[in-house]
Amino acid sequence: MTATFKTLDELDLTNKRVLLRADLNVPVADGKVSDATRIERLVPTIREIVKHDGKAILLSHFGRPKGKVDPEFSLEQVCAAIANETGHPVGFVATDWNDVSAAKQAIDDAPAGSVLVLENTRFHPGEEANNPELAQRMASLGDVYVNDAFSAAHRAHASTEALAHLLPAAAGTAMQAELEALEAGPGKPKKPVIAIVGGAKVSSKIDLLENLVTKVDGLVIGGGMANTFLHARGHGVGKSLAEKDSAETALRIMDKADKASCAIILPIDAVVARHFKADAPTRLYGVDAIDPDGMILDIGPSSVERIKGAIDEAHTIVWNGPMGAFEMNPFDAGTVAIAKYAAERTHAGKLISVAGGGDTVAALAHAGVKDAFTYVSTAGGAFPRMDGRQAPAGCRSAEEVRPDCTSERSHQP
Ligand code: ADP
Ligand code: MG
Protein backbone atom coordinates (compact mmCIF):
# COMPACT_ATOMS: atom_id res chain seq x y z
CA MET A 1 0.00 0.00 0.00
CA THR A 2 1.89 3.02 -1.24
CA ALA A 3 -0.95 5.45 -1.13
CA THR A 4 -0.78 8.31 1.31
CA PHE A 5 -4.49 8.84 1.74
CA LYS A 6 -6.23 7.15 4.64
CA THR A 7 -8.07 3.99 3.68
CA LEU A 8 -11.24 2.46 5.02
CA ASP A 9 -9.45 -0.17 7.10
CA GLU A 10 -7.58 2.57 8.96
CA LEU A 11 -10.84 4.04 10.20
CA ASP A 12 -12.71 2.70 13.22
CA LEU A 13 -16.15 1.88 11.84
CA THR A 14 -17.45 -0.19 14.73
CA ASN A 15 -20.85 1.07 15.83
CA LYS A 16 -20.11 4.36 14.12
CA ARG A 17 -22.44 6.57 12.15
CA VAL A 18 -20.51 6.58 8.88
CA LEU A 19 -21.31 9.43 6.52
CA LEU A 20 -20.56 7.93 3.14
CA ARG A 21 -20.23 10.45 0.34
CA ALA A 22 -21.39 8.38 -2.62
CA ASP A 23 -22.04 9.25 -6.21
CA LEU A 24 -25.69 8.36 -6.59
CA ASN A 25 -26.03 10.63 -9.58
CA VAL A 26 -27.10 7.68 -11.70
CA PRO A 27 -29.23 7.69 -14.84
CA VAL A 28 -32.92 7.16 -14.09
CA ALA A 29 -35.56 6.41 -16.71
CA ASP A 30 -39.26 5.92 -15.90
CA GLY A 31 -38.49 6.06 -12.17
CA LYS A 32 -35.93 3.26 -12.41
CA VAL A 33 -32.14 3.32 -12.33
CA SER A 34 -31.08 2.40 -15.87
CA ASP A 35 -27.35 2.00 -15.22
CA ALA A 36 -26.27 0.94 -11.74
CA THR A 37 -22.51 1.05 -12.38
CA ARG A 38 -21.88 3.74 -9.82
CA ILE A 39 -23.95 1.90 -7.24
CA GLU A 40 -22.15 -1.39 -7.88
CA ARG A 41 -18.90 0.38 -7.11
CA LEU A 42 -20.18 1.33 -3.66
CA VAL A 43 -21.08 -2.17 -2.56
CA PRO A 44 -17.72 -3.14 -1.01
CA THR A 45 -17.59 0.02 1.10
CA ILE A 46 -21.19 -0.35 2.26
CA ARG A 47 -20.59 -4.01 3.15
CA GLU A 48 -17.48 -3.09 5.10
CA ILE A 49 -19.40 -0.55 7.16
CA VAL A 50 -22.28 -2.93 7.81
CA LYS A 51 -19.87 -5.70 8.73
CA HIS A 52 -18.59 -3.52 11.56
CA ASP A 53 -22.12 -2.72 12.75
CA GLY A 54 -21.67 0.80 11.52
CA LYS A 55 -24.55 2.71 10.02
CA ALA A 56 -23.86 3.49 6.37
CA ILE A 57 -25.42 6.92 5.84
CA LEU A 58 -25.23 7.79 2.16
CA LEU A 59 -24.83 11.37 1.09
CA SER A 60 -24.98 12.42 -2.55
CA HIS A 61 -26.09 14.97 -5.08
CA PHE A 62 -28.51 13.98 -7.79
CA GLY A 63 -29.16 16.01 -10.92
CA ARG A 64 -29.32 19.78 -10.85
CA PRO A 65 -32.12 20.94 -8.56
CA LYS A 66 -30.29 24.28 -8.22
CA GLY A 67 -30.35 24.55 -4.44
CA LYS A 68 -34.10 23.98 -4.14
CA VAL A 69 -36.20 21.10 -2.92
CA ASP A 70 -37.54 19.41 -6.05
CA PRO A 71 -39.23 16.00 -5.73
CA GLU A 72 -38.14 15.15 -9.27
CA PHE A 73 -34.58 14.95 -7.94
CA SER A 74 -35.29 13.12 -4.71
CA LEU A 75 -32.79 10.40 -3.88
CA GLU A 76 -35.63 8.27 -2.62
CA GLN A 77 -35.95 6.89 -6.16
CA VAL A 78 -32.50 5.27 -6.12
CA CYS A 79 -32.96 3.46 -2.79
CA ALA A 80 -34.45 0.36 -4.42
CA ALA A 81 -31.44 0.03 -6.73
CA ILE A 82 -29.06 0.30 -3.77
CA ALA A 83 -31.01 -2.37 -1.91
CA ASN A 84 -30.86 -4.50 -5.03
CA GLU A 85 -27.09 -4.16 -5.47
CA THR A 86 -26.18 -4.56 -1.80
CA GLY A 87 -28.80 -7.18 -0.94
CA HIS A 88 -29.49 -5.10 2.15
CA PRO A 89 -32.61 -3.14 3.07
CA VAL A 90 -32.17 0.58 2.51
CA GLY A 91 -33.96 3.26 4.49
CA PHE A 92 -34.59 6.70 3.07
CA VAL A 93 -34.20 9.60 5.48
CA ALA A 94 -36.16 12.65 4.33
CA THR A 95 -33.67 15.36 5.18
CA ASP A 96 -34.35 19.05 5.67
CA TRP A 97 -30.92 20.51 5.05
CA ASN A 98 -31.91 23.65 6.95
CA ASP A 99 -32.72 21.71 10.08
CA VAL A 100 -31.32 18.20 10.36
CA SER A 101 -32.71 17.39 13.82
CA ALA A 102 -35.40 15.02 12.48
CA ALA A 103 -32.86 13.29 10.24
CA LYS A 104 -30.53 12.95 13.21
CA GLN A 105 -33.30 11.32 15.22
CA ALA A 106 -34.10 8.91 12.36
CA ILE A 107 -30.44 7.93 12.15
CA ASP A 108 -30.21 7.40 15.91
CA ASP A 109 -33.37 5.28 15.83
CA ALA A 110 -32.05 3.02 13.06
CA PRO A 111 -30.43 -0.20 14.27
CA ALA A 112 -26.68 -0.83 13.97
CA GLY A 113 -25.72 -2.05 10.51
CA SER A 114 -28.44 -0.03 8.76
CA VAL A 115 -28.02 1.39 5.28
CA LEU A 116 -29.63 4.82 5.02
CA VAL A 117 -29.84 7.37 2.25
CA LEU A 118 -30.12 11.06 3.01
CA GLU A 119 -31.87 13.49 0.70
CA ASN A 120 -30.14 15.15 -2.27
CA THR A 121 -27.42 17.45 -0.94
CA ARG A 122 -28.13 19.89 -3.78
CA PHE A 123 -31.55 20.64 -2.31
CA HIS A 124 -29.60 23.24 -0.34
CA PRO A 125 -27.66 26.01 -2.12
CA GLY A 126 -24.87 25.59 0.45
CA GLU A 127 -23.82 22.29 -1.14
CA GLU A 128 -22.38 23.79 -4.30
CA ALA A 129 -21.20 26.87 -2.36
CA ASN A 130 -19.12 24.64 -0.03
CA ASN A 131 -20.95 26.35 2.81
CA PRO A 132 -19.38 25.69 6.25
CA GLU A 133 -22.68 25.83 8.18
CA LEU A 134 -24.23 23.21 5.92
CA ALA A 135 -21.10 21.08 6.32
CA GLN A 136 -21.46 21.43 10.11
CA ARG A 137 -25.03 20.22 9.90
CA MET A 138 -23.93 17.27 7.79
CA ALA A 139 -21.11 16.50 10.21
CA SER A 140 -23.59 16.40 13.11
CA LEU A 141 -25.18 13.35 11.45
CA GLY A 142 -22.03 11.21 11.55
CA ASP A 143 -19.03 10.16 13.59
CA VAL A 144 -16.71 9.49 10.66
CA TYR A 145 -16.64 10.42 6.97
CA VAL A 146 -15.84 8.18 4.03
CA ASN A 147 -15.56 9.55 0.52
CA ASP A 148 -16.26 7.00 -2.18
CA ALA A 149 -17.37 9.44 -4.85
CA PHE A 150 -14.31 9.78 -7.04
CA SER A 151 -16.39 11.17 -9.88
CA ALA A 152 -17.49 14.05 -7.65
CA ALA A 153 -14.21 14.51 -5.81
CA HIS A 154 -12.90 17.24 -8.07
CA ARG A 155 -15.69 19.54 -6.93
CA ALA A 156 -15.22 21.56 -3.77
CA HIS A 157 -18.74 21.20 -2.42
CA ALA A 158 -19.92 21.03 1.18
CA SER A 159 -20.33 17.24 1.15
CA THR A 160 -17.02 16.58 -0.64
CA GLU A 161 -14.76 19.28 0.74
CA ALA A 162 -15.83 21.21 3.85
CA LEU A 163 -17.30 18.13 5.49
CA ALA A 164 -14.10 16.13 4.99
CA HIS A 165 -12.30 18.48 7.37
CA LEU A 166 -14.82 18.12 10.16
CA LEU A 167 -14.69 14.39 10.88
CA PRO A 168 -12.08 11.62 10.82
CA ALA A 169 -12.04 10.78 7.12
CA ALA A 170 -10.92 8.12 4.68
CA ALA A 171 -11.30 7.10 1.06
CA GLY A 172 -13.75 4.29 0.37
CA THR A 173 -12.63 1.24 -1.58
CA ALA A 174 -13.84 2.51 -4.96
CA MET A 175 -12.12 5.84 -4.39
CA GLN A 176 -8.99 4.04 -3.24
CA ALA A 177 -8.94 1.92 -6.40
CA GLU A 178 -9.33 5.02 -8.55
CA LEU A 179 -6.55 6.87 -6.74
CA GLU A 180 -4.18 3.92 -6.84
CA ALA A 181 -4.83 3.30 -10.51
CA LEU A 182 -4.10 6.93 -11.24
CA GLU A 183 -0.89 6.72 -9.25
CA ALA A 184 0.43 3.38 -10.31
CA GLY A 185 -1.26 2.13 -13.44
CA PRO A 186 -2.00 4.47 -16.28
CA GLY A 187 0.43 7.05 -14.90
CA LYS A 188 3.25 4.86 -16.20
CA PRO A 189 1.67 2.84 -18.94
CA LYS A 190 3.44 -0.01 -20.61
CA LYS A 191 4.41 1.01 -24.13
CA PRO A 192 3.38 1.08 -26.89
CA VAL A 193 0.35 3.00 -25.73
CA ILE A 194 -2.47 4.04 -27.94
CA ALA A 195 -5.23 6.37 -26.95
CA ILE A 196 -8.67 5.98 -28.46
CA VAL A 197 -10.67 9.15 -28.26
CA GLY A 198 -14.18 9.69 -29.53
CA GLY A 199 -17.42 11.22 -28.43
CA ALA A 200 -19.28 14.18 -29.70
CA LYS A 201 -16.99 17.16 -29.55
CA VAL A 202 -13.40 18.19 -30.01
CA SER A 203 -13.95 21.38 -28.04
CA SER A 204 -14.65 19.52 -24.81
CA LYS A 205 -11.46 17.49 -25.10
CA ILE A 206 -8.84 19.81 -26.57
CA ASP A 207 -6.67 19.76 -23.45
CA LEU A 208 -6.91 16.00 -23.30
CA LEU A 209 -5.91 15.60 -26.98
CA GLU A 210 -3.04 18.05 -26.72
CA ASN A 211 -1.71 16.26 -23.68
CA LEU A 212 -2.16 12.82 -25.18
CA VAL A 213 -0.33 13.37 -28.44
CA THR A 214 2.90 14.08 -26.59
CA LYS A 215 2.54 10.96 -24.42
CA VAL A 216 1.17 8.16 -26.56
CA ASP A 217 2.46 6.29 -29.58
CA GLY A 218 -0.78 6.43 -31.46
CA LEU A 219 -4.01 8.38 -31.24
CA VAL A 220 -7.15 6.87 -32.69
CA ILE A 221 -9.83 9.48 -33.27
CA GLY A 222 -13.40 8.38 -33.83
CA GLY A 223 -16.93 9.50 -33.07
CA GLY A 224 -18.29 12.91 -33.93
CA MET A 225 -14.93 14.33 -32.99
CA ALA A 226 -13.31 12.65 -35.99
CA ASN A 227 -15.56 14.68 -38.29
CA THR A 228 -13.89 17.88 -37.18
CA PHE A 229 -10.50 16.36 -38.02
CA LEU A 230 -11.71 15.03 -41.37
CA HIS A 231 -13.14 18.44 -42.21
CA ALA A 232 -9.85 20.08 -41.22
CA ARG A 233 -8.08 17.73 -43.60
CA GLY A 234 -10.34 18.83 -46.40
CA HIS A 235 -12.85 15.98 -46.48
CA GLY A 236 -16.51 16.80 -46.93
CA VAL A 237 -18.50 15.66 -43.92
CA GLY A 238 -21.99 16.49 -45.21
CA LYS A 239 -24.44 17.26 -42.44
CA SER A 240 -22.43 15.44 -39.79
CA LEU A 241 -21.88 16.87 -36.37
CA ALA A 242 -18.60 18.73 -36.81
CA GLU A 243 -17.13 21.81 -35.18
CA LYS A 244 -15.89 23.56 -38.26
CA ASP A 245 -14.56 26.49 -36.26
CA SER A 246 -12.28 24.06 -34.45
CA ALA A 247 -10.51 23.13 -37.69
CA GLU A 248 -7.43 25.11 -36.71
CA THR A 249 -7.31 23.40 -33.35
CA ALA A 250 -7.51 20.05 -35.09
CA LEU A 251 -4.66 20.97 -37.42
CA ARG A 252 -2.56 22.16 -34.50
CA ILE A 253 -3.16 18.89 -32.64
CA MET A 254 -2.19 16.86 -35.71
CA ASP A 255 0.93 18.96 -36.15
CA LYS A 256 1.88 18.47 -32.51
CA ALA A 257 1.32 14.73 -32.90
CA ASP A 258 3.55 14.67 -35.94
CA LYS A 259 6.38 16.38 -34.06
CA ALA A 260 5.98 13.97 -31.15
CA SER A 261 5.96 10.93 -33.46
CA CYS A 262 2.44 10.06 -32.43
CA ALA A 263 0.54 8.36 -35.23
CA ILE A 264 -2.93 9.79 -35.83
CA ILE A 265 -5.45 7.21 -36.92
CA LEU A 266 -8.61 8.71 -38.39
CA PRO A 267 -11.56 6.78 -39.82
CA ILE A 268 -11.20 5.71 -43.46
CA ASP A 269 -14.85 4.82 -43.94
CA ALA A 270 -18.08 5.82 -42.29
CA VAL A 271 -21.65 4.69 -41.72
CA VAL A 272 -23.84 7.51 -42.95
CA ALA A 273 -27.56 8.17 -42.49
CA ARG A 274 -29.87 10.97 -43.57
CA HIS A 275 -31.53 11.19 -40.17
CA PHE A 276 -30.24 11.18 -36.63
CA LYS A 277 -32.50 8.41 -35.42
CA ALA A 278 -32.41 4.75 -34.52
CA ASP A 279 -32.68 2.30 -37.39
CA ALA A 280 -32.40 5.05 -40.00
CA PRO A 281 -31.36 3.58 -43.37
CA THR A 282 -27.60 3.71 -43.73
CA ARG A 283 -24.95 3.65 -46.41
CA LEU A 284 -21.28 3.06 -46.15
CA TYR A 285 -18.89 5.59 -47.66
CA GLY A 286 -15.17 6.09 -47.84
CA VAL A 287 -14.27 9.35 -46.11
CA ASP A 288 -13.39 10.84 -49.50
CA ALA A 289 -16.96 10.48 -50.72
CA ILE A 290 -19.36 11.32 -47.92
CA ASP A 291 -22.93 12.03 -49.09
CA PRO A 292 -23.37 15.84 -48.81
CA ASP A 293 -26.84 15.28 -47.31
CA GLY A 294 -25.65 12.54 -44.97
CA MET A 295 -24.54 12.38 -41.37
CA ILE A 296 -21.62 10.26 -40.22
CA LEU A 297 -22.95 8.31 -37.24
CA ASP A 298 -20.41 5.53 -36.89
CA ILE A 299 -17.01 4.41 -38.12
CA GLY A 300 -17.13 1.84 -40.93
CA PRO A 301 -15.81 -1.74 -40.97
CA SER A 302 -12.50 -0.84 -42.63
CA SER A 303 -11.86 1.68 -39.89
CA VAL A 304 -12.69 -0.98 -37.31
CA GLU A 305 -10.13 -3.32 -38.88
CA ARG A 306 -7.53 -0.58 -38.88
CA ILE A 307 -8.13 0.17 -35.19
CA LYS A 308 -7.95 -3.53 -34.35
CA GLY A 309 -4.57 -3.56 -36.07
CA ALA A 310 -3.46 -0.66 -33.89
CA ILE A 311 -4.69 -2.49 -30.78
CA ASP A 312 -2.64 -5.53 -31.86
CA GLU A 313 0.47 -3.38 -31.77
CA ALA A 314 -0.28 -1.87 -28.38
CA HIS A 315 0.51 -3.01 -24.86
CA THR A 316 -1.86 -0.48 -23.37
CA ILE A 317 -4.92 1.31 -24.62
CA VAL A 318 -6.60 4.21 -22.92
CA TRP A 319 -10.06 4.93 -24.22
CA ASN A 320 -12.41 7.84 -23.76
CA GLY A 321 -15.38 8.52 -26.01
CA PRO A 322 -17.49 6.20 -28.18
CA MET A 323 -16.74 5.71 -31.87
CA GLY A 324 -20.27 6.55 -32.96
CA ALA A 325 -23.77 7.40 -31.79
CA PHE A 326 -23.77 4.11 -29.94
CA GLU A 327 -27.07 4.76 -28.16
CA MET A 328 -28.88 4.06 -31.43
CA ASN A 329 -28.97 0.89 -33.46
CA PRO A 330 -27.06 0.27 -35.75
CA PHE A 331 -24.61 3.07 -34.95
CA ASP A 332 -23.25 1.13 -32.00
CA ALA A 333 -21.52 -1.39 -34.27
CA GLY A 334 -18.09 0.28 -34.47
CA THR A 335 -17.90 0.98 -30.74
CA VAL A 336 -19.09 -2.52 -29.85
CA ALA A 337 -16.59 -4.17 -32.22
CA ILE A 338 -13.67 -2.21 -30.78
CA ALA A 339 -14.83 -2.81 -27.20
CA LYS A 340 -15.16 -6.54 -27.75
CA TYR A 341 -11.80 -6.77 -29.45
CA ALA A 342 -10.04 -4.88 -26.67
CA ALA A 343 -11.76 -7.13 -24.12
CA GLU A 344 -10.61 -10.22 -26.02
CA ARG A 345 -6.99 -9.03 -26.14
CA THR A 346 -7.16 -8.16 -22.45
CA HIS A 347 -8.56 -11.56 -21.60
CA ALA A 348 -5.73 -13.15 -23.58
CA GLY A 349 -3.25 -11.26 -21.40
CA LYS A 350 -1.96 -9.26 -24.36
CA LEU A 351 -3.37 -5.88 -23.50
CA ILE A 352 -3.88 -3.53 -20.61
CA SER A 353 -7.15 -1.77 -21.29
CA VAL A 354 -8.17 1.36 -19.50
CA ALA A 355 -11.37 3.24 -20.21
CA GLY A 356 -12.96 6.32 -18.71
CA GLY A 357 -16.00 8.52 -19.18
CA GLY A 358 -19.70 8.23 -18.49
CA ASP A 359 -20.78 7.41 -22.02
CA THR A 360 -17.75 5.25 -22.64
CA VAL A 361 -18.57 3.10 -19.63
CA ALA A 362 -22.20 2.91 -20.78
CA ALA A 363 -20.97 1.81 -24.21
CA LEU A 364 -18.75 -0.90 -22.69
CA ALA A 365 -21.69 -2.09 -20.64
CA HIS A 366 -23.81 -2.13 -23.79
CA ALA A 367 -21.14 -4.24 -25.49
CA GLY A 368 -21.16 -6.57 -22.47
CA VAL A 369 -17.44 -6.10 -21.75
CA LYS A 370 -17.34 -3.56 -18.95
CA ASP A 371 -15.86 -6.08 -16.52
CA ALA A 372 -13.45 -7.45 -19.09
CA PHE A 373 -11.38 -4.28 -19.22
CA THR A 374 -8.36 -3.99 -16.96
CA TYR A 375 -9.61 -0.80 -15.46
CA VAL A 376 -12.72 1.27 -15.96
CA SER A 377 -13.26 4.68 -14.45
CA THR A 378 -16.76 6.05 -14.15
CA ALA A 379 -15.48 9.52 -13.45
CA GLY A 380 -17.14 11.98 -15.78
CA GLY A 381 -14.54 13.31 -18.16
CA ALA A 382 -11.85 11.70 -16.06
CA PHE A 383 -9.09 10.06 -17.96
CA PRO A 384 -5.85 8.46 -16.91
CA ARG A 385 -3.00 10.86 -16.55
CA MET A 386 -0.29 9.91 -18.96
CA ASP A 387 2.69 11.47 -17.24
CA GLY A 388 1.92 10.87 -13.61
CA ARG A 389 1.39 14.56 -13.12
CA GLN A 390 -1.09 16.24 -15.38
CA ALA A 391 -4.71 15.57 -14.62
CA PRO A 392 -7.20 14.99 -17.38
CA ALA A 393 -9.61 17.80 -18.14
CA GLY A 394 -12.41 17.81 -15.62
CA CYS A 395 -10.54 15.69 -13.14
CA ARG A 396 -8.21 16.71 -10.42
CA SER A 397 -5.00 14.85 -10.03
CA ALA A 398 -4.67 12.33 -7.25
CA GLU A 399 -2.53 14.83 -5.36
CA GLU A 400 -5.33 17.35 -5.38
CA VAL A 401 -7.98 14.86 -4.48
CA ARG A 402 -6.00 13.23 -1.75
CA PRO A 403 -5.98 15.99 0.89
CA ASP A 404 -9.72 15.46 1.33
CA CYS A 405 -8.93 12.00 2.50
CA THR A 406 -5.79 12.44 4.57
CA SER A 407 -5.90 12.19 8.29
CA GLU A 408 -3.93 15.39 8.91
CA ARG A 409 -6.38 17.72 7.30
CA SER A 410 -9.54 15.85 8.03
CA HIS A 411 -9.02 16.00 11.79
CA GLN A 412 -8.77 19.76 11.82
CA PRO A 413 -11.64 21.39 13.67
P1 ADP B 1 -17.76 10.25 -22.49
O1 ADP B 1 -19.00 10.54 -21.67
O2 ADP B 1 -17.38 8.81 -22.45
O3 ADP B 1 -16.62 11.17 -22.16
P2 ADP B 1 -18.66 11.89 -24.66
O4 ADP B 1 -19.68 12.51 -23.76
O5 ADP B 1 -17.53 12.76 -25.08
O6 ADP B 1 -18.13 10.54 -24.04
O7 ADP B 1 -19.37 11.44 -26.02
C1 ADP B 1 -20.44 10.57 -26.07
C2 ADP B 1 -21.46 10.99 -27.06
O8 ADP B 1 -20.92 11.19 -28.35
C3 ADP B 1 -22.53 9.94 -27.21
O9 ADP B 1 -23.76 10.48 -26.78
C4 ADP B 1 -22.55 9.62 -28.69
O10 ADP B 1 -23.84 9.44 -29.22
C5 ADP B 1 -21.91 10.86 -29.29
N1 ADP B 1 -21.35 10.59 -30.61
C6 ADP B 1 -20.35 9.76 -30.92
N2 ADP B 1 -20.14 9.74 -32.25
C7 ADP B 1 -21.04 10.56 -32.80
C8 ADP B 1 -21.33 10.97 -34.15
N3 ADP B 1 -20.64 10.48 -35.19
N4 ADP B 1 -22.33 11.85 -34.34
C9 ADP B 1 -23.02 12.32 -33.29
N5 ADP B 1 -22.81 12.00 -32.01
C10 ADP B 1 -21.82 11.12 -31.76
MG1 MG C 1 -20.48 12.11 -21.86
Describe this structure in words.
The chain folds into 2 domains: 8-174, Phosphoglycerate kinase, N-terminal domain (Rossmann fold); 181-377, Phosphoglycerate kinase, N-terminal domain (Rossmann fold, 3-Layer(aba) Sandwich). The chain has 13 helices and 17 strands. The protein starts with 16 loop residues before the first strand and ends with a helix. Helix 1 (37-51) crosses helix 2, helix 6 (206-213) runs parallel beside helix 8 (247-259) and helix 9 packs parallel to helix 10. It has 413 residues and is an alpha/beta fold. 31% of the residues lie in helices and 17% in strands. It has helices at residues 37-51, 79-86, 101-109, 132-139, 173-184, 206-213, 223-232, 247-259, 301-313, 333-347, 358-367, 398-401, 407-410, and strands at residues 17-21, 28-29, 32-33, 55-59, 90-93, 115-118, 144-147, 169-171, 193-197, 218-221, 263-265, 269-273, 282-286, 295-299, 316-320, 352-356, 375-377. The radius of gyration is 23 Å and the shape is elongated. The strands form 4 sheets. It has a 6-stranded parallel sheet with strand order 5-6-4-1-7-8, sandwiched between helices. A 6-stranded parallel sheet has the order 11-10-9-15-16-17, sandwiched between helices. The protein has a 3-stranded antiparallel sheet with strand order 13-12-14. Adenosine-5'-diphosphate binds at residues 198-200, 223-224, 241, 296-297, 320-322, 324-327, 357-360, 381.
Task: For the record, give the distance between the C-alpha atoms at the N and C termini, rounded to a whole number.
Answer: 28 Å
Strand content: 15-25%
Bound molecules: adenosine-5'-diphosphate, magnesium ion
CATH class of the largest domain: Alpha Beta
Biggest beta sheet summary: 6 strands, parallel
Work out the radius of gyration: 23 Å
CATH topology of the largest domain: Rossmann fold
Name the overall outline. elongated
Taken together, the total number of domains comes to 2
> In CATH terms, what is the architecture of the largest domain?
3-Layer(aba) Sandwich
| Average predicted local confidence, pLDDT | 87
How much helicity do the residues have?
Answer: 25-40%
Uncertain runs are 384-413
Order of helices and strands: EEEHEHEHEHEEHEHEHHEEEEHEHEHEHH
The structural class is alpha/beta
Summed up, the helix count is 13
Strand order of the largest sheet: 5-6-4-1-7-8
Give the tally of β-strands: 17
Q: Superfamily at the CATH H level of the largest domain?
A: Phosphoglycerate kinase, N-terminal domain
